[in-house]
Design a protein that fits this description.
169 residues; alpha+beta; three-stranded antiparallel beta sheet; 4 helices; 5 strands; 17% strand; disordered N terminus
Length: 169
């Protein structure tokens, strides 16, 4: 008996799908896993309070996301740490979580790491950021809506955008 010729899977070229639009109109809902993504915007005109450096805040992107809630939370918290006059001030406001994204801060001559809590809801991201901002005395720093970057930082919002945001850098 002669053995059957088995070709490796890589010998069959995959069809080129790059020209097919990948949006909800062309992909059946049963084929697409529903992944929750959020986008939050930074109000760079907000009152930064005594802990955040306005010049550093100005260097942050206009928004974080769209991405999973845990990633957006990590980006926003890390942005606050990186924009602080003293990273230790922001870092010590946070408590160790388990299984979430990691953040870091450098103070006292060392790098410190902390895991954020696991995030499963948009509401949790919003509550977490509001509480952090209240502690930092900069209550209107994050928004669920695009912010026109004009003078006067009185913009207020209570949610986090759940649709994709366009990249505006």
């Amino acid at each position: 008996m002669t053995p059957l010729a088995i070709s490796p899977p890589s010998s069959t070229p995959e069809p080129d799908m790059s020209s097919i639009p990948q949006d909800a109109a062309t992909i059946p809902h049963s084929a697409t896993p529903q992944v929750l993504t959020v986008c939050i915007y930074i109000n760079k005109q907000a009152n930064m309070g005594p802990n955040l450096d306005r010049k550093k805040i100005q260097q942050l992107p206009d928004h974080f996301g769209p991405d999973r809630p845990s990633v957006v939370l990590q980006q926003a918290v890390q942005g606050c740490i990186d924009s602080a006059f003293q990273q230790k001030t922001v870092f010590t406001l946070l408590t160790q979580g388990y299984g979430g994204e990691k953040i870091s801060a450098t103070f006292d001559g060392k790098q410190h790491l902390l895991s954020l809590p696991v995030v499963n809801s948009i509401d949790y991201v919003l509550r977490f950021l509001k509480k952090l901002c209240r502690s930092l005395h900069c209550e209107n720093l994050f928004s669920d809506q695009p912010i026109s970057q004009r003078s006067g930082g009185s913009y207020q919002s209570d949610g986090i955008r759940t649709r994709s945001c366009k990249h505006r850098n």
